[in-house]
Specification:
397 residues, N Utilization Substance Protein A, Chain:P, domain 4, GMP Synthetase, Chain A, domain 3, 5 domains, 5-stranded antiparallel β-sheet, 4-stranded mixed β-sheet, 13 helices, 15 strands
Length: 397
Amino acid sequence: MDKNFFEALDALGTENSVDVDILIEKIKSAMLKAARKAYPDCEENITIDIDPAAQKFEMYIRQTIVDDEPIDENEINIAAARVIDPYAVVGGTVQKRLNIDKFGRAAALSAKQSIKGDLRDINRARILEKFEKKEFECITCQVSQVEAGGTATLIYDNTEIYLFRKEQIPGEILKEGQMVKVYITAIANKQKKPVIKISRVRKELVKRIFEMTVPEIFDGTVEIKAISREAGSRTKIAVWSNDPNVDAVGACIGPKRSRISAIVAELSGEKIDIIPYSEKPEEFIARALAPATVLRVDILTNEEKDRTCSIVVPNNQLSLAIGNRGQNAKLAAKLTGFKIDIKPEFEIVPADAANEIAPEEEALEIDETAELENASELTEQEAEAELRRFDEAAAEE
């Protein structure tokens, strides 16, 4: 067996991230199956020797030395045995080298399929071992390729995983070599070929990044109570301190805003509102609508399946409370779990309504208009009469 086999063996191990010794054992097993098909009567007497260091790949059949004619491949005549081993004796054994080329196409294909199956099993076990404990966690990967359609190939611990366009932050442009954090949403098809599903749009990603960035959250001093997110635009996160001496919001922001700035940068500039959590629903809802100022919160229903409230804000804060396309109100509702109805402090009279006229006023206005029109007509008649008189006087002259 020439060195090309061993070069291919190294390449196969590297490509599949499999140790060469493990791969050799799998190849031995596959080749033994093929050899036993070619020599069905010699199943127990076939051995295989693969030594990468000596670049040796040989197969043998152990034959018993007999004095007369051999009855099958398990026996060899003493004369033939002494060609292999000059010291052979009747009753002993010799190792006869097998010609691998004689196995035939069917046996070779069988060996190939067996090796492929073994590699699939190895890869499946390796992937599960690497990722199973990281399901629902955040990992850091390197972008290795971005396809024209937007799908990005990421590398994590020598394993390729795919970040599809719909799971990328809207407006985000990934570049080759860039390090990004992703959230493992699931490991599908565990029994055959595991598929690692990842995302950068889930709100859980934000939670995990805060846990990784803020020590007080990691050790449990500060607790994340709720998160609502519109990926690529804005996130609201409610935090609570279990230690009266620790400011939950301050811990998340960090010295000179270092922590929150790092998180925003990781999320490609996404805005983050850190909300102090309150066990009082009215207070929590009012804070959730930040940056708008809330004057009053009225809880209408507080049942588990139907939680609604009414909010009153200053007239000049109405658009701020609702947000662009209702985003601020929507995120506040998801954060608190309440359906929110936002109202202005003073009722705004629509422009059309302001121009409406009461029936009595409308009748009065019609009368006044008629009088003005009549007055206008009299004035025109008088003007015509004066004009005629002027023309007559001019004619006489």
